[in-house]
């Protein structure tokens, strides 16, 4: 799949986004189509979620650029193409109803998932981002669709498992076995893997004891870390 094309210029005044965001989201979706995203469920969800509310007001004019943006605590909101690509990969040819997101960040990807999946579970290890995600999801009235947990994402949520799909938004040297174990048979997990050279990896659980692994595109994510940060 070709790498994403450069994003069209967004308005310079963040204050205009309230009026322009629908047009900018539509343009973003057309760009995603051109970049190879074909799942209409994903495209519809991406168009429905106002990405500009998930970033700092000073960066709101760049919200619909195809770029990762800082959200504080040395973390980023992933570029729209990456969000769409990861969700489309775990949803291809199926309709997952129970999904876990590891690394909720500011809540954007969980909000997109909530427009596609019945039950979304999201976990965030940094307290400040957990609070931010909770506020964003409440503002969009998605807090009842997304079960947000403050905790160690590398451990997953064993009490809520198994999951039809797991989306990991940070890169580790290897995918934690705890997450692979929480994937339902036939389910899919997608995660970036590696340190300086990272790639998206798609894993499908083929039986109780077997997983099929496929390497996808080169990407760049923040590191996957254990524990919690207050």
Describe the structure.
By secondary structure, the chain is of the alpha/beta class. The protein has one domain (14-219): Rossmann fold (3-Layer(aba) Sandwich), CATH 3.40.50. It is 28% helix and 26% strand. The protein is built from six helices and nine strands; from the N terminus they run ααββαβαβαββαβββ. The strands form two sheets. A seven-stranded mixed β-sheet has the order 5-4-3-6-7-8-9. Helix 1 packs antiparallel against helix 2 (40-48). The model is unreliable at 1-15 (pLDDT under 50).
Weakly predicted, low-confidence segments = 1-15
By CATH, the topology is Rossmann fold
**How much beta, percentage-wise?**
25-35%
Which CATH class is shown?
A: Alpha Beta
**How confident is the prediction overall: mean pLDDT?**
92
The total count of helices amounts to: 6
CATH superfamily: Vaccinia Virus protein VP39
Taken in chain order, the helices and strands follow as HHEEHEHEHEEHEEE
Task: Calculate Rg over CA atoms.
Answer: 16 Å
**DSSP helix fraction:** 25-40%
Distance from N terminus to C terminus (CA atoms, Å) equals: 39 Å
Strand order of the largest sheet: 5-4-3-6-7-8-9
- Tell me what the CATH architecture is: 3-Layer(aba) Sandwich
Largest sheet, in brief, is:
7 strands, mixed
Count of the domains: 1
